[in-house]
Amino acid sequence: AGMHAAMAGALTIPNSAPRARPALMKQTGIEFLPEEAIERAKEGNPIEKAKLAKDPTSAWTDVYEFAAKIREGSLTWEEVEKADMNSRLKYCGMLHRDKRTPGRFMFRLRVPNGIVTSDQMRFYADRVEPYGPDLGVVDITTRQNIQLRGITLEDAPDVIDGLHARNQTSFQSALDNVRNMVGSPLAGIDPLEMIDTRPYCNALSDLISLDPVTQTRGNPVWGNLPRKFNICVSGSRDDFAHTHINDIGLQPTVHATTGEMGFNVVLGGYMSIKRVAH
Questions:
Q1: In whole numbers, what is the pLDDT of the chain averaged over residues?
Q2: Beta carbons of 244 and 234 less than 8 angstroms apart
Q3: pLDDT for 117-149, tens place per residue?
Q4: Which family does it belong to (predicted)?
Q5: Which terminus, N or C, of the chain has the lesser number of Cβ atoms within 10 Å?
Q6: Taking the domains of the chain in order of start, what are their residue ranges?
Q7: What is the pLDDT of residue 275?
């Protein structure tokens, strides 16, 4: 129950859009791993080995360099290292499919609690429209998220900068990062609501993806977690956010003794009937 006060004090929502990322990164995600984990990764699958060869948090600056070179004609997307195209750029939320849509990316955003503004929606539409109806598509996902399809590598910085200018990001939305923060779909309007989940989803998302030192998007502290790590916040006893199918679920509750509002924490949920039952 004391989590309510702790979160309110420790997790704050920035008042302005994050600044552009500095040219040099001082820390990488691998630097926060214990030595035992690094040793295991050396014998791991190709993705883990690629991460050790070049930390994927480098994608936060690499994407700008790749795009600039493609625009000036000194590089083509086919010449970009395959591990960058298919793996490391996922740290920017950019997912590439060699066979289905070669040279095109699906941008997965971070949209805490699924809340978007009309300006943001117009931006999504404007970004994908030039690619035509077959490639330029906006998805609304089951985790209250947005995905932009058809984006080319040379156009990626325009998408990233446009999102950051609107206090959104696509950074750390794929691969070994925490997925979008899910909250109540009726947040703020549910008459039986115990807690408005929106500020908590925003604060948790910023905790994961906002560098506390530079105040730029991309936080290496949380840049090397198990794949598809899911967190949700429920706002009422109806549990519209489905805490039991998330790795971490926060359920609102009132402390039996003090009456303080806080959360019960549910751990280890999964999209499996047997796993949930267990």
A1: 88
A2: no
A3: 999 999 999 999 999 999 999 999 999 999 999
A4: Belongs to the nitrite and sulfite reductase 4Fe-4S domain family.
A5: C
A6: 3-277
A7: 63
Give the pair of three-digit tokens for residue 271.
């999209």
| Residue with token string 């970004």 | 127
The Cα-based distances of 198 to 53, 68, 234 in angstroms read 38, 37, 10
Find out whether 253 and 264 touch, Cβ atoms under 8 Å.
Answer: yes
Q: How far is CA 194 from CA 98, 101, 190, 199, 261, in A?
A: 46, 44, 9, 13, 8
**At 229, is the secondary structure helix, strand, or coil?**
strand
Using DSSP's 3-state secondary structure scheme, residue 268 falls into coil
Q: Which residue has the tokens 């994050």?
A: 18
Give the CB-side neighbour count of residue 260, counting CA atoms within 13 A: 11
Going by CATH, does the domain composed of 3-277 fall within 3.90.480? yes
205 contacts 222 by C-beta, under 8 angstroms: no
What per-residue confidence (pLDDT) applies to 5? 36
- Distance (Å, rounded) from C-alpha 151 to C-alpha 165? 18
More confident position, 45 or 138: 138
Task: Tell me the two tokens of residue 177.
Answer: 């990062």
Alpha-carbon gap, residue 244 to 269, rounded angstroms: 5
Q: How far apart are CA 217 and CA 213, in angstroms?
A: 11
